[in-house]
Specification:
The protein is built from 8 helices and 6 strands. The chain is an alpha+beta fold. Helix 3 runs parallel beside helix 5, helix 6 crosses helix 7 and helix 7 runs parallel beside helix 8. The C terminus is likely disordered.
Length: 271
């Protein structure tokens, strides 16, 4: 009988040991599973944070470097400024040798458009041209109407008091057509008017002419035209300042060299 009792208690003791070992095994496994879940959760959180940072970095860069407006500035130098949605200059393009020369002398990228235009107006070459009775036209294009209007208002303030300086607005379609010809938007405007007066004029003929020379040529051609200057300054563009007769004086590319073939134009296309 004693042996039976011992065997019974021995059996119970063995079962307790089995339970304990099983419990320890499960605890180890459960803790390991929890740590693995935590590691995975941390990994997913880090991945999500990195994705957000990358989106902000590249998304912000895309927003900053996307042009929403352009400012064409023409005297003889022809320069176009690309403006982003934050009113900062993100690109500068010279459309002729004089424009590229001035562009290299200026440090206007990432400045506001008012600061950039102010630097251009203060450039010695530009000041000398304006003092010599040359004409400057500034043309604004853009897909955002509110921003374009604000830029035009800012440009009028920048150029207020500067003699022979005029601001205009042009359509995005005009800007695209100008660029296809290799012209700034302002020179394209003048070229359109000249072609209406003399269809033989090409963009290359006015490339190196100053805006004063272009306007004198327009005036000369208009003297014998039935339309006179009534059509001047309204080539799908809206003048913002007093345009006088120079609203279209900015759209050419180099007619000076061939202008000699038009003897009756002698006063306008002088070299």
């Amino acid at each position: 009988m004693n042996n039976g009792i011992k065997e019974s208690f021995g059996s119970i003791h063995a079962e307790e040991e089995l339970k304990n070992s099983t419990r320890e095994f499960l605890v180890r496994k459960t803790r390991g599973y929890t740590k693995a879940v935590r590691r995975k959760s941390r990994y997913h959180v880090c991945a999500a944070v990195c994705a957000c940072l990358m989106f902000l970095l590249f998304g912000g860069r895309w927003l900053y470097f996307t042009p929403t407006a352009e400012i064409s500035i023409d005297i003889n130098p022809s320069i176009e400024l690309s403006v982003n949605r934050f009113d900062r200059i993100i690109a500068v393009n010279g459309f002729n040798d004089a424009g590229r020369e001035i562009m290299e002398a200026l440090d206007i990228k990432h400045k506001t458009y008012t600061e950039a235009v102010g630097q251009i107006m203060d450039n010695e070459q530009v000041e000398a041209l304006l003092s010599g009775n040359e004409i400057m036209t500034i043309t604004v294009t853009g897909s955002d109407g509110k921003q374009s209007s604000k830029i035009l208002s800012g440009l009028r303030a920048c150029t207020n008091g500067h003699k022979n300086t005029h601001c205009y607005r042009a359509s995005s379609e005009d800007a695209s057509a100008a660029h296809e010809m290799g012209l700034s938007c302002g020179r394209y405007r003048a070229f359109q008017e000249l072609v209406r007066l003399d269809p033989s004029i090409t963009p290359e003929m006015v490339q190196d002419m100053t805006m004063r020379e272009i306007q004198d040529l327009i005036d000369s051609l208009s003297e014998g035209s039935d339309n006179g200057n009534d059509d001047a300054g309204n080539v799908d563009d809206e003048p913002m300042n007093d345009s006088g007769g120079c609203g279209n004086g900015n759209r050419g590319n180099g007619n000076r060299g061939q202008h000699g073939h038009h003897g009756h134009h002698g006063s306008g296309g002088g070299n």
